[in-house]
Amino acid sequence: MDEQQSTEQTRPTDKEKHRKKALKEAEQKIEELNGQIETLSRDLEDKTKELAESKDRYLRLAAEFDNYRKRQDKEIGQIVEYAGEDVLRNILPVLDDLERSIKTKTENMTVQTVQDGLELIYKKFLKILSDLGVQTIDSLNQPFNPDIHHAVMAREEKDAEPDMVIDEFEKGYNFKQRVLRYAKVVVSK
Fold first, then answer.
1. How far apart are CA 23 and CA 139, in angstroms?
2. Chain centroid, CA 75 distance in Å
3. CA pair distance 94, 123, nearest whole angstrom
4. CA–CA separation, 112 and 125 (whole Å)
5. What does the alpha-carbon distance between residue 174 and residue 165 come to, in Å, rounded to a whole number?
6. Dihedral angle at the C-alpha atoms of 140, 141, 147, 153, nearest 10 degrees?
7. Residue 1 predicted with pLDDT over 70
8. pLDDT tens readout for residues 132-145
9. CA distances from 129 to 86, 134, 139, 149 (A)
């Protein structure tokens, strides 16, 4: 019996074999999980770096856009503020002509020379407006068009067809493709 007891003691029991096997499997699983943890840690570190870089790029882009928007606002403000500068610069020669005509001595002037001078100034002013994109609206003897005409009066005219412009109180003007001022007209009945 003593021999049997000693062999039993030296021979591992099934429980011990099972425990050793389970311990070995657990150690392998722990090793496998540690490897996965290391991989995940590296991945997390890489993703954290990528996120920081993306955040930095985003902040730089946001700052660039903000600076761009501020520059645009400033430029638009200047454009609005000085938009009429070219128009005024072009009109100044007309003002100069008017000043010269006022300063001219009237002793030798006739009504015709004054009228001729005013007509020259008028033509010069029309040329300036034309260069700026302002065109007169031809209204006389044209069919009435509410898109460009403002009828201030209607009257019967025996030689005119109905709804024709027969007189013009104020000329109308277009600026490029827009009506700047409607022509004030008299329309035939």
1. 106
2. 12
3. 10
4. 20
5. 18
6. 70
7. no
8. 899 999 999 999 99
9. 11, 5, 18, 20
